[in-house]
UniProtKB/TrEMBL annotation, chains A, B:
PANTHER family: AMINE OXIDASE, AMINE OXIDASE [FLAVIN-CONTAINING] B. PROSITE patterns: TAT. Keywords: Membrane, Transmembrane, Transmembrane helix. Belongs to the flavin monoamine oxidase family. Residues 7-18 have a biased composition (Basic and acidic residues). It holds the Pfam family Amino_oxidase. InterPro entries: Amino_oxidase, FAD/NAD-bd_sf, Flavin_MAO, TAT_signal. GO terms for molecular function: oxidoreductase activity. The lineage of its organism: Bacteria, Bacillati, Actinomycetota, Actinomycetes, Streptosporangiales. This is Monoamine oxidase.
Length: 550, 550
């Protein structure tokens, strides 16, 4: 297999001139003594636990490759009876994937070095705070001026409770809190509306009319062939409750669920009115406002790391050890050889060739494609097919939390058909003095008004658009802002990457010689932290199995 | 007006024998000098701000009584130009209402004393922690054995973001966090089901079939007279998205939204199946599971006070001052006199008659009705009409948070038609070692299996019922539990009170002589902390206006 051992081995290691760069460890060649498979496995199981046994089973070709999804982390004990030693691994990229690989391999004794071109770890998992500086490709530097405790999750901001991200947060002691992804009190605004409406009103009216229409059709006999009489009665009862219909006529005539013009207190509340017609409600035509939490990925509740979504990458980096992470170090060449991998870098110490037994490349695929080396034409061709997606956000800090004080909105998002797409209100710092909201979160190129603009223009446009929803206060008391356009972030150049033909991913899920690829882009959880973690676990398992079987 | 000054004034103050009980302050009778109304108001406005002006306007009969809902707190400055002095006020009951009254009046300089029969403040706003002891009427004492940091909100547990409760938490520095009232990952279980299903599956299937049925009816022409062709197309597009229907046939054939049999990772997720028929889904017949967040009172997100819902009452008590709150002191007689109120109490110091200018009775109405005195037959009759509602909860502490670890449920509730009604998973302490869930929260008498039982039987039954949803682990690792049946709580005797004829409330919203009534039961936010606060504000405003106008 050409890609298994590398098509173009470099004959000799380049002189690095770096004093603390050890020569590659010779691969250990000792084999276990002559024992039966069963005795070996039982012995390993007794001494090293299930993890060691499973790893050894894999090494012996016994473990099914796809059936078992549970991750069994490599551990030092896995080597104790096999006679092998942990290998030296170079990990390219200190984003979530790279750090997770280094963390998991490091736990088992692998000698990992993480190489990162940017000046900080985390990659797209970027949380910006007061004092941070960053530059976009072709734009001036931004200096973040948020007050103490304020932050901006410029990248991923949400975790679904079933995702492996939660497990890593638990394991590493990173506390989580609710990320409010649905708020009935937030607004919906489309350009056809005279004024924004509360999400609760959209929901009540839409559910009300859907229920009324279906109840009337049921009573007119339209469902007689689909449903039994008993089912029809249950359906009618459900619709009356679901739509808050008149229990006799099944008419929708508005509902307190829309919101109150005057909330109840000592006196009864007064329903927010007038109630729009079914035609008006259909005309809002922003289903996203009512279905955004329908998917498993976005179902409520969601979670965020307390204090910023870089909590996990910070915890990873701490466990890995800062000395193993080389920042400001750019990969300029990757060569996979029969017995090692050479990775050439430009860093603070000039040009250095790092050598290891294996390499895991966790950079965005379209960036790996540009790095010279000997990965082979099929691999480079597959990598080149990656299409980076633009996405961007702006965070705006205000001197007071007017959305809580005046609009009674605590977290969640206002959905709109404007190019800002949505406004996210913070799910932390309730009752605080200042507050930071997300003034746009745009995805994809169709409406990408903001990426080409310099920051000050994005700021201006975000305020102009937000004013359509919140009025003049949206432009009042603004303290500062910061914005990120992911296609313009150096060494990242995209919010995430997709492939028109996912078939090419099969090529990239296999190692190219001694070089493995990993990242959310290789998974079915693209653009989620969980995708990075799942990919890291898979590659770590594959690599560990290979090391144990060599 | 008979009720305004009291129908049966007692001629003389009883000897109290209590040394620190000052005689009632004689009412101040000085009047402001001869100025015009306008000049007076402008002067008050300039010197005392809007609060003083509004209070003075009320005193002069200028303020509309019902139109303005915003509360303007009494302040010391309100007295500075009117020549009056703050009065002495006895407040009966140290629940939320009583404490809010004492807090608001105290800010303006009123001399308040709060009298509470129980051994702690808070009333139904009761948070139980390890070491707490409490007794139910006719039952043994319970000793709470929860671990450090664990707590049980035996009473109110949730705040809607538009409620005044949030404003008080902000004002008093009581931090809040999200109370998860809806969780797609939690279960739904009815006795007709073979096994519990995830709420997400119920929602996806119900929305799927509703959408399919309505789309088919639309395409069959059943809505042609109700909707234009254009509206019908918008509706169909919406239904396809809302129900996750086949975009060509408008069939519902299941959806990833139901949940995954295998969640996505490197490989695609596998949809949870099989998909039940429309008849099966209608047969679940638990609309509450899908509509519980529909109302404004229960719309997501909701909030809770960090560390327990007694945070606000603790903050109130601290501001009021412990010396002004007499616990273990039972009211045995209330007499409203022309110039004062006498309240007779049995407390640690024996029988004491407290005297004040005014009294605010915040006890449950059916308990006030039993207290001898001279409130008058119409008032007592109205109070007697109160019907206490039973409600109860059990909190169960486990040695591990299996609902997070195994079920991936972080907060929210499982809804069921069993007599436990629901199971609430905690919205705090995520990733912790131990966890406390609510094993039942029953409301009303229809299914009130638990109130008559002693605690150990409630515990046993709750575990038996919960096992139907969660299996044997529900009875494994149980550390301790505590349960409250509100009709059996001394000096409370009900979760809340309702009135068959709300007309009688008009009588009780007026003072009986110098005795005012306040409580959630007088409002349209019955059983909410916000109801207590709104009632307190109204009575405080009324009383303050009266004092300023005397």
């Amino acid at each position: 297999m050409t890609t298994e051992e590398g098509p173009d081995p470099r004959p000799a290691q380049e002189e690095t001139g770096k004093p603390d760069q050890p020569p590659p460890a010779p691969p250990t060649r000792r084999r276990p003594g002559p024992v039966t498979r069963r005795a070996l496995l039982l012995g390993i199981g007794a001494a090293g636990g299930a993890g060691a046994m499973y790893a050894a089973m894999g090494a012996l070709g016994l473990a099914p490759r796809e059936q078992k999804r549970d991750f069994i982390a490599p551990r030092p004990g896995d080597f104790s009876l096999t006679g092998r030693a942990a290998a030296k691994v170079l990990i390219l990229g200190a984003g979530v994937t790279g750090l997770a690989c280094a963390y998991e391999l490091g736990k088992a004794g692998y000698d990992c070095t993480v190489i990162e071109a940017r000046d900080r770890v985390g990659g797209r998992c970027l949380t910006l705070r007061g004092g941070d500086r960053f530059t976009e490709i072709g734009d001036e530097q931004q200096v973040v001026r948020f007050g103490e405790g304020g932050y901006f999750n410029a990248g991923p901001a949400r975790i679904a409770q079933w995702m492996v991200t939660m497990d890593y947060c638990r394991e590493l002691g990173v506390p989580v809190e609710v990320f409010i992804n649905d708020n009935a009190q937030a607004y919906v605004y489309t350009r056809g509306m005279k004024a924004p409406i509360r999400a609760a009103a959209y929901r009540a009216d839409m559910y009300g009319y859907l229920s009324e229409l279906l109840a009337k059709a049921t009573n007119a006999g339209a469902l007689n062939r689909r449903l039994t009489r008993a089912d029809r009665q249950v359906l009618l009862d459900f619709l009356a409750e679901f739509g808050d219909l008149d229990r006799r006529t099944y008419d929708y005539g508005g509902s307190d669920r829309r919101g109150y013009a005057t909330p109840p207190g000592v006196q009864p509340g007064k329903m927010l009115g007038p109630v729009p017609s079914v035609s008006e409600v259909l005309g809002y035509d922003l289903p996203r406002a009512l279905t955004k939490t329908a998917s498993q990925e976005q179902a409520a509740p969601m979670f965020q790391m307390v204090g910023g979504m870089d909590g996990l990458v910070r915890a990873f980096a701490e466990r890995i050890g800062e000395d193993r992470i080389l920042t400001r170090t750019k990969v300029t060449r990757i060569d996979t050889l029969p017995d090692r991998v050479d990775v050439t870098c430009e860093g603070p110490d000039g040009t250095v060739v790092h050598t290891a037994d294996y390499c895991i490349a966790t950079l965005p695929p379209h960036l790996i494609a540009r790095i010279p080396g000997n990965l082979g034409a099929p691999v480079v061709s597959a990598l080149t097919a990656a299409q980076p997606t633009p996405a961007g956000k702006i965070a705006i800090e205000y001197d007071r939390r007017w959305w809580e004080l005046e609009d009674k909105i605590f977290g969640g998002s206002t959905e709109t058909d404007l190019d800002i797409t949505r406004i996210w209100y913070p799910s932390y710092g309730f009752f605080g003095e200042r507050g930071i909201l997300i003034g746009y979160y745009t995805i994809g190129s169709a409406k990408d008004t903001f990426t080409p603009l310099p920051h000050r223009e994005r700021h201006r446009r975000a305020l102009t658009q937000g004013k359509k929803i919140h009025g003049e206060k949206y432009r009042t008391g603004v303290l500062s802002s910061a914005s990120v356009a992911w296609t313009r972030q150096p060494y990242i150049e995209g919010a995430w990457a997709t492939f028109t033909d996912p078939g090419v991913l099969a090529t990239l899920r296999r190692p190219a010689g001694r070089v493995y690829f990993a990242g959310d882009w290789l998974t079915n959880l693209n653009a989620w932290i969980a995708g990075s973690l799942e990919s890291a676990r898979t590659v770590v398992t594959d690599l560990h199995r290979r090391v144990l079987s060599q």
